[in-house]
Each structure stands twice: as C-alpha cells, then as structure tokens.
Amino acid sequence: MADINELRQFPVLETDRLRLRQLGLADTEALFQTLSSEEVMRYYGRFPLLEQVEAAELIERFRLLFEDYRGIRWGIELKENAQIIGSVGFHAWAFSHNRAEIGYELNEAYQGQGYAREALTAAISYAFQDMGLNRIEALVYPENEASEKLLLRLGFDLEGLLKQYAFFRETYVDLNMFALLKG
C-alpha cells in the first residue's frame, strides 16, 4: 500500500514523446480545444464545453482531485512543442481498497498515432508502483471500439456490461467494465 504522505508532490512522468504533468490555467485554451469537440466528448459522459471558463473550472477540479487524495489527472504534453493534446488520470480512487478508475481523452488531431497508449502505459505504471493500486478499472461506452481495443492491448479484461450504469447527457447509458490487476 502506498504511503499517502509520499503523494504530496505532483509527479511528472516522461515517455519517449510525451510529458505527463499537472495542468494549470495556462493550459485552459488547449484543454478547451480538446473538450469542445463533439468527436472527443461523445464518450466522455458530458456535452462538449461551450466556453473556455469551463475548461478552467475543470483544471481546478483536477487540482482539487489530487489535493484531496481522490485521484490524479495529468495533462498530456508533446515534448517537441509543449502542446497539451489531452489528459489522462485516475478518479474514484478507493485508497483503502487500492483501486481507482482510469480516464483519458485526446484531441482528435492526435488520435490514432499511439499517444494514448504511450500516456496510459506511463500512468498505469505509476499507479501500480507509486499509488499502490492493485486494480485499475475503466468504464467504456460499448460503442467506443477504439478505446476498448486500446484497453485490451494494454492487458485489461472485459468483466461485463453494466446496464444503465450512468446518467450521461440526459440519458441512462450502458457501460462496459474493464479491469487490470497488478498481479
């Protein structure tokens, strides 16, 4: 189990092409560009953002998520130009049960280039090694075939369909439960 006091400093993770770092208000426009896209948001569980202030509010929620030990959300930054192209992280962190749910999204201009896999691999490694997680869950719309394929390639198992599990975009939606165990 992780020592919660060791998790006070927000970690920066690096891969070959990416830097995963804490989002700040300077990233508002880049995050808004990603989250205002219907293509990106159709599987996010909410409608696209309409104003940049919504992206700034989300960045603040991500900060509080980490500060309150409920999760962590990194901005996905391209090393080559310091451009934020999406985010990845954990929420619904059940600290005493050593599990959390992973979430992620990429700006549509950067999808299909391996960035999501690269970012998720780094986040998962951090979760198992530094957060002390034993189980990582992912809830995915059954129609989101690209995300499901990515999770399966990363070793997640499909555990089942959760019927009308969430109320997103003013309707009840079914979600597939995927899980990856440390062992």
UniProtKB/TrEMBL annotation:
<dbReference type="Pfam" id="PF13302">
    <property type="entry name" value="Acetyltransf_3"/>
</dbReference>
<dbReference type="InterPro" id="IPR016181">
    <property type="entry name" value="Acyl_CoA_acyltransferase"/>
</dbReference>
<dbReference type="GO" id="GO:0008999">
    <property type="term" value="F:protein-N-terminal-alanine acetyltransferase activity"/>
</dbReference>
<dbReference type="InterPro" id="IPR000182">
    <property type="entry name" value="GNAT_dom"/>
</dbReference>
<dbReference type="GO" id="GO:0005737">
    <property type="term" value="C:cytoplasm"/>
</dbReference>
<feature type="domain" description="N-acetyltransferase">
    <location>
        <begin position="18"/>
        <end position="182"/>
    </location>
</feature>
<protein>
    <submittedName>
        <fullName>N-acetyltransferase</fullName>
    </submittedName>
</protein>
<keyword id="KW-0808">Transferase</keyword>
<dbReference type="InterPro" id="IPR051531">
    <property type="entry name" value="N-acetyltransferase"/>
</dbReference>
